[in-house]
Amino acid sequence: MVYTITISSGKKFDIDMFLSQFEVDMKIEMEGYDDEYDYFYLLRPGFSTSMFLVASNRKDEISVSIDMLASYDDYKFFPFITDCINIYLNGESLKIDGKRVYDTLDEEWIADCIGEEVAMLKSTLSVFHKYYQELPLLPGTYVSMKQLTDFGVNLHSSTPRIYGYIQYILRKGLALTSTEEEIMAEQETFYELSNIEVDVPQHISIGRVKSWQIDGSETWESYSKEDVDILVNLSVKYVENRDISDIYGVVMNDIGTIYQEGIGVEIDGEKAIFWYEQAILHGDLLYAASNLGDLYRKGCGKVKSSLSKAFDAYMHSKDYYAMYRVGQAYEEGWIGKPDIDEAMRWYRKAAKHGHHLAIKRLNKQ
Question: How remote is the C-alpha of 96 from its chain's centroid?
């Protein structure tokens, strides 16, 4: 589905003029027209996993649409581009029902949009094997149940978990696409199935893992029994045959997480370490390396705390949080004598990217 804002103005909309004055890099990926409208499909290189659609009726109305499977960055960007278009056309900021567009299209709006879209995806995949993006970067892009399962996700997964892995798939260029012929052949079946009423599968959590965003806000990763069953099944397949290629580093990190936290399985620090290390070997230098560092820093089950091993793990991570922990290691002398100058260097590296703990530590100087 798409979410659309309509702007009224007597001024003609010139897309080239608007973009030349716009302070953000945007690319016209495609344009078209019919008897009533001009259509411009835009994206932000490096940020977008779908396109924006700007449609002008060549008279007094411009609509701006976002795919509801858009990236979080583009959700945050959407009120900005609509406001800028209104300023360009009408000379004033955009208001919706008397409120600033930024106050209407806020974090709660983003959560509602994503929740609505994931509920629609769950309903569709309950009866049909593909869920198509409305404004894809590549024509015919869809999400399949098979691909979600490869990432340890299913229809009983939490909304953030489903949305997060869809965005990972899109950003990594792993999305599946259908040909025009395939889409045409599927349309009749799809419309027949679209009239079927289904119960949206609900997420029932059996365990949650707390984490923090770079600004310090608290978030939770929730797992269902079905999530754990799929992850354990993927782990068994991998151990039995190390050559399988359909298990990704980020998924191995999830397997390590359920063993570290004891979600649906017994807490097992040694298994968690194995899976984090496998995840790192398979390219996850963000979450797995940081999680491995946390495991060694705190200990887990029979695995005792080891600050030197924690330091080594954090040093392998590209996570800004890990940079903060490296700074802490130098300050507290995890691997030798404390080195406050080196600690400050690492704190500054993390703070440069906005990490709240590093900023807080530097403010104490």
Answer: 27
Structure tokens at 59: 């008279």
Tokens standing for residue 8:
């009224």
Residues 6+ apart with CB under 8 A from 263: 206, 207, 209, 223, 228, 257
Token pair belonging to 333: 């002398």
Q: How far apart are CA 299 and CA 99, in angstroms?
A: 50
Cα gap 71→167, rounded to integer Å = 6
Dmax of the chain from CA atoms? 74
7: left (phi over 0), alpha (psi -120 to 50) or beta: beta
User: Which tokens is 127 given?
Assistant: 């009866």
pLDDT of the chain along its 365 residues, tens only?
A: 999 999 999 898 999 999 999 989 999 999 999 999 999 999 999 999 999 999 999 888 999 999 999 999 999 999 999 999 999 999 999 999 999 999 999 999 999 999 999 999 999 999 888 999 999 999 999 999 999 999 999 999 999 999 999 999 999 999 999 999 999 888 877 776 667 777 888 999 999 998 887 777 788 999 999 999 999 999 999 998 765 666 899 999 999 999 999 999 999 999 999 999 999 999 999 899 999 999 999 999 999 999 999 999 999 999 999 999 999 999 999 999 999 999 999 999 999 999 999 999 999 86
Contact 260, 270 (CB under 8 A): no
Residue 31, H or E segment: strand 27-33
Q: What is the torsion angle, in degrees rounded to the nearest 10, for the CA atoms of residue 147, residue 252, residue 298 and residue 313?
A: -120
Give the burial class of 24: count Cβ atoms within 10 A of its Cβ; 0-12 exposed, 13-18 middle, 19 or more buried: exposed
Token pair recorded at residue 153: 């996700």
234's tokens: 């993927």
What is the pTM for the complete model shown?
0.91
Helix H or strand E encompassing 157: none
Secondary structure in 3-state letters for 158-201 = CHHHHHHHHHHHHHCCCCEECCHHHHHHHHHHHHHHHCCCCCCC
Say which DSSP state 255 is in: H
